[in-house]
Amino acid sequence: MLGKIVFLIAASGVLSSGLKVDVDDLLALYERIDSSVKLTQHEAAIEIRALTIPMESFLDDAVKYVMGNLTVAAEPYWTTIASMEAEAEAKGEDISACVNGGNEELYTLNETIVNAPLEKIAAYRTEGNDMIYASANLAYSAIEELLELEVQVKACSDPECAEELYNALIEFHGRASETLEASVDNPTTYLNELPEKLALVNIDADDYKEKFTAIIDAVVICTIL
Hints:
signal; 6 helices; 90% helix; mainly alpha
């Protein structure tokens, strides 16, 4: 930011000193701004792309967290089923049909239970990728505006247009600096806030327990009939 202020003071000094701006002054300023903006845009693009790595890591960890919690939550079901199988085996009974039916119902329940949190994580993934894409486009918009100014600068051949474009370049540089800063700040802020949002994404353990308990009850009834 300090470099931007020093640059603008130096550039505006030509005008504030009362000196006339000629085409050579304009071209010299353009070359400096062209170099500055292109370098900053290149660095911004690298920073923006780099943000995809921690973002994907956060999202993948969130998926693992949800699936891990499902595994933990399902342990009472499997413990109960294993106990029922051991007891049936000791009695010489075959309850495999009942158990298999219950397990199939549990697998279906699992898909239903994780569907909402996984969809939420997928939505954050889409949102994050859209943010990265939009930020990269925002950064490049500074280059697009620079190229438009380049055409005008190259076509300028008299002091009048030189002074007008000189002022336009100074204004553009300040605007471009803010644009490029925002192109990195926006996705960085999103990334910093993402873990807190993902921490709220989880399965409904109480609802899951209630539903797999009903499956266990159905298995028990099946073994009696």
